[in-house]
Every structure is written in structure tokens, then in C-alpha cells.
Design goal:
The protein is α/β, with parallel strands linked by helices and 310 residues long. A 5-stranded mixed sheet has the order 4-3-5-12-6. The protein has helices at residues 5-17, 20-27, 31-45, 61-82, 103-110, 114-120, 173-176, 200-208, 225-233, 247-252, 279-295; strands spanning 50-53, 56-59, 95-101, 124-130, 144-149, 159-164, 168-171, 195-196, 221-222, 239-241, 256-257, 268-273.
Length: 310
Amino acid sequence: MRPSLSSLNAFEVVSRLGSITAAADELNITQSAVSHQIRRLEATLEVSLLERAGRGVVLSHAGRRLADGLQAGFARIEQSVAEFEVDPQGVHQRRQLRVSCLPSVAVRWLIPRLNSFREQCPDIAVSLQYAGISARGLLPELDVMITWQDELPDKASQAFRLFSGATQPVASPLYLEHHRRPTQPADLLKLELIHDQSRQPWHDWFNNCGLYPSQLDKGDLYQDFSLLSAAVVAGQGVALCPPRLIRKELEDGTLECLFEMAANRQRAYWLFHHPQPARHVQQFCNWMRAQIAAEGEAADSGVIVSRRQP
């Protein structure tokens, strides 16, 4: 006996929201109706799918396997239906591309290039929203997610690498005018080091240089890269930044790369999409690949525009 579509839909929503109450609100049915659908599905499949965890629920191993397949499946159904949506006059609406993207990549890389995509695909409307750095897994209501990872995506993921997330030390000429320009990595220990969320990358950078400072607890700490980049441009210290995201500042001299050595060398930015993407999603993925290829890997290095004094 195959499970009903309504029970599969109820389970997919519960698995995505982690709450029967939240699922009931989204489905506009009662909590007891959601619970009944889940029990009915478990009875049909003869397996436990959910486990209680405080006020919410967590997926069992079998539940996670089923949820992964259902989320991709329902996303594909929604994409297919969207291909036939028309307005009241019977005209096909512009297809909406739903993109979740890290603020740093959205503001500093993607948005400045979107006019090119609009010119190439005028029938696609881009809906852009922020993705948190902790976001893992592409939600069904999204078409694309752009984020970084320190590890390779799992084999089941549909993803392709965009560019390196390795970071190099940079500073503004405004800051260097009032501080002795560093000529060797140890010199940075005498300067103001500013941090993006964590101080660990600076520890890693010095370790890569063969230096092991006991503490790096000084210097301002910024919640995200957008704030950090604004601070380093304003001359507040030396920061570790991915050259690809500060390319404009490196080229016009607003920022200078101080050393070739990098931290976060295992990090990369990735684009995730659902299996068998709709045509408009595939068009966006192809455009993204072309943009990356046109820039080349040299764009990941700040060294080529280093303005260090001899």
C-alpha cells in the first residue's frame, strides 16, 4: 500500500519546520490532523519517522532519508507548475527565481552583476534573500542557495564550486599612513587586527606562517563580513578578507593586500540547487558558471594587486 500524498505533504512540512504546531499553521489544519497524517504515514511505511525533542520533534534516521527525497520532490512539483502560471489576461508570468545568498556575496559580487543576467534572461524575475552562514540544506521554497563551506558538499547534494574562500591580510592606506608598514608576518602582531565573527582565522594565519601567538584577544569583532569590510576600508585595522569579494577595493587601491599567505584555505563558496532543476534555474546556473569562468582563478588572489613598498 502506497502512502497518501496528503500524509507525505504533512510529513515534509513537519520535517522542514521541526514542529507539528508550525506545520499545522502552514497547512491551515489542526495539530491533531497533522499528527494523524504522520501516524498514518508511519503505519503505512512500518517505520518510525519522528522523535520527540522538548516541545518540538526531530527526524529519525529513516525520517531524514524520506525528508530529503520529499523536499526535492515537492520542490520539483512546484517548479513544474510554475512553468504554466499565467496572469488574469492569460499571459505567462515572468518566472520567479528564488535565490538565498550570503549577504557578503550578494552585496559585493552577485548584485553588481545581475543586470547582465536580466539582459540575458528578461523573462526571469530574481527574488533575492539573505542566507545565514549556518544555513545547511536547500529549502523546498528556494531554487538556489549560495553559501560557503569548509568541507566538500556531501555526495547527495546538487552543487558546484564558485570560488575560493581563502582569506588574506589587507589594510587601507588610511591605516598604513599612521602605522609602520609590515615587512614580515610577525609585524602584524604589533598592529590592530580586526575579526569577522571569530578570532580563530587569525590564529590559523599566524600558524601557517610558523608563528604561534598565545593570545589574539585584542581588536574589534564584527558579526559579519559586510561590517568587517566596512571597518577595514575605514582604516580601523588589518583584516583577513577573501580577495574575490574585495576585488574593486584592491584594484582601485582602497585596500592593499599585505602578504601572500592565506587562512581559511579549505573554504570555498558553493551554489546549491535541487535535482533536475527547472529550465530557468538551469539558465541561472549556466550564467553563474560563465561569470566565474570569465573572471578566472586569478581573481581569488590579492597578490597581483599588492602595493607593498620595496
